[in-house]
Design brief:
There is one protein chain. This protein has 389 residues and is an alpha+beta fold. The protein folds into two domains: 226 residues, FAD/NAD(P)-binding domain, CATH 3.50.50.60; 102 residues, D-Amino Acid Oxidase, subunit A, domain 2 (D-Amino Acid Oxidase, Chain A, domain 2). 39% of the residues lie in helices and 29% in strands. The protein has 13 helices and 20 strands. It has an eight-stranded mixed sheet with strand order 6-5-14-15-16-13-17-20. Strands 8-2-1-12-19-18 form a six-stranded mixed sheet. Strands 3-7-4 form a three-stranded antiparallel sheet. A hairpin with a 5-residue loop joins strand 14 and strand 15. The longest helix has 28 residues. It is globular and about 60 Å long. The structure holds 8-demethyl-8-dimethylamino-flavin-adenine-dinucleotide and P-hydroxybenzoic acid.
Length: 389
Amino acid sequence: MRTQVAIIGAGPAGLLLGRLLEKAGIDAVILERRSQDYVLGRIRAGVLEQGTVELLDKAGVGGRLHAEGLVHDGVEFCFDGDRHRFNFRELIGRTVTVYGQTEVTRDLMQARDASGATTIYEAENVSLHDFDSDAPTVRYTKNGIEHELACDFIAGCDGYHGVSRASVPEGALRTFERVYPFGWLGILVDKPPVADELIYAHHERGFALCSMRSPTRSRYYVQVPLGERIEDWSDDRFWDELRRRLDERAAEALVTGPSIEKSITPLRSFVAEPLRFGRLFLAGDAAHIVPPTGAKGLNLAASDVGALAEALIEHYVERSDAGIDGYSARVLSRIWKAERFSWWMTSILHTFPDTDAFGRRIQRAEFDYLRASRAAASALAENYTGLPL
Ligand code: RFL
Ligand code: PHB
């Protein structure tokens, strides 16, 4: 089999890239290790930047997103019981949209199925070859039979644990990492959200987040130490802990119920440099990880592939490699700003085992400054709603 661009991974990065290329008449095949249902079963991100929404519109998959997504003008921070709303629309004229990653994935998969583009699910033992030449190939096994896919370019969109970054020769890649000493315990519940917008709460017992997927489905998180076991967290224990970290008004308004999903995510910052090796490109979680506090992971994946699609279109349509040559530097500049913002949100909102009384006063001063200064609040708004590429 032959294609122009071989895409590894059918997460949001791979699917959106495939769709943007298809719209420009460029052929791409997606190889995905898991089944379609498995990919759709993963509960992850929920907040889309305005630029991500625009890109999904450009990909022709914005219909349901505009009908069902919830446009939020701002978010709330709650510090030790004091709540403050940041109104992004009023501050900088931008908003975010609450629409689950699962739904984005479903919309992209449906568009791909409808157009007849090839996606190979349950592709095992994917391996990347000769991407330092003009004739790269990808090999994989499907139902016990070995296949080879010849291509012009390989897009590594296979997440943090994927094969693409691991295929880069040692010494060609520099990595930067920060591992946080805690994780997020998240639950999904079919009950109305506690408030109209998201609440990010700082409390001496730890961080908490009240989010949502729809007017009838809520997503809540509490910070937990690393090594915590999910079996030790009954729904009742989760609700008690969440309530204690919120202000009185939110604690009283909280509607609880049986969880329909419960999982723990460790928090990490990670960046690989560069993001191009000959004819192999890395994009999305394969290239970088952010802690979820700034709601940036899915959005960075989208902006990476937006830039990669532009570069590949330039190569095929305008016969210029300027975009390909500039891809890594262009996206890394935005990636590092999102890394900074996610690290900053994480550091002011969580409790750290080694934070002393001075550190806690600094966290409080950050909140008081954000509340008092339009400039500081605008900086938050600008970053949360998404910086330009
Ligand atoms: P994905 O989604 O991990 O997809 C990669 C795909 O590659 C496949 N794969 C392989 N395929 C073939 N061969 C191999 N060897 C392969 N190895 C892996 C995998 O099966 C998978 O299908 O990466 P992608 O596309 O880069 O997308 C990134 C986003 O999924 C991620 O950044 C976000 O979910 C992060 N994130 C959030 N991002 C936001 O923008 N806003 C949020 O509100 C937000 N909340 C979150 C989050 C992530 C979370 N978790 C669980 C990590 C909340 C949570 C709890
Ligand atoms: C979510 O709804 O899952 C979510 C929202 C905001 C974040 C992280 C996760 O910062």
